[in-house]
Design brief:
By secondary structure, the protein is mostly helical. It has one domain (2-176): Serine Threonine Protein Phosphatase 5, Tetratricopeptide repeat (Alpha Horseshoe). The protein is 82% helix and 0% strand. The chain contains 7 helices and no strands. The protein has helices at residues 2-7, 9-28, 34-56, 67-84, 91-117, 125-142, 148-203.
């Protein structure tokens, strides 16, 4: 898991940026209609799912698990497609879509965070993003009759906060990747020095 995430830390940053853009759209809604927001949101979410899918195959090696990322990618793309086709659906139906996506993606993030904590000490950004999604998604499912303005506000808060948390995680993953590269370089240097020393000793009479 750690190898996959560190190799694709930039994808985590990109996901965070896209979620922040989605959150800003939810609050500003430049086109002035809920349908416009749903259209832009579905495109951004589908793109995020594709980015997750690509990152799942980066830095992958045998013995590592990536099903969390594959499941999150499939869920995100599916939600984006359903949201794109939900322009004529009642607000309650759209609320159920948003709520369900937030909860399930939040549960996946929490599961990934638990596994990641075994490899990165005191890592909590991903778990916090997951808990946030579960809480806000649960609120939406309990109150599906909320108006479109309230739904967009909740979606905006979720997107911006989650985006910031993912960016924070990506920066930490980048630092971890740097440490891993330094450690690998040190090991290679030590092996090279040792092999040279062995050859020199073998060459002496």
């Amino acid at each position: 898991m750690l190898r996959i995430l560190t190799s694709s830390w930039w994808a985590m940053t990109l996901r965070g940026i896209m979620l922040i853009i989605l959150g800003i759209l939810a609050f500003t809604n430049p086109a002035g209609t809920a349908l416009a927001f749903i259209f832009y949101a579905s495109l951004l979410i589908i793109t995020e799912g594709v980015i997750i899918l690509i990152s799942a195959f980066m830095g992958f090696s045998s013995g590592e698990t990536r099903w969390h990322l594959l499941l999150e990618a499939a869920l995100t793309i599916l939600f984006g497609i359903l949201l794109y086709r939900a322009s004529g659906v009642l607000i309650a139906g759209i609320a159920y879509l948003f709520g369900g996506w937030m909860i399930f993606s939040g549960i996946i993030k929490v599961g990934m965070a638990i596994q990641l904590r075994q490899e990165i000490e005191n890592e909590f950004w991903l778990g916090l993003a997951g808990v946030l999604g579960v809480l806000l998604g649960g609120y939406i499912l309990f109150y599906p009759e909320i108006g479109i303005a309230t739904l967009m506000a909740i979606a905006g808060i979720f997107a911006i906060l989650t985006g910031l948390l993912l960016i924070a995680l990506s920066l930490r993953l980048r630092k971890v990747q740097g440490r891993i590269h330094n450690a690998v370089d040190n090991v290679r240097g030590a092996v090279t020095n040792l092999s040279q020393e062995v050859r020199e000793r073998q060459g002496k009479p």
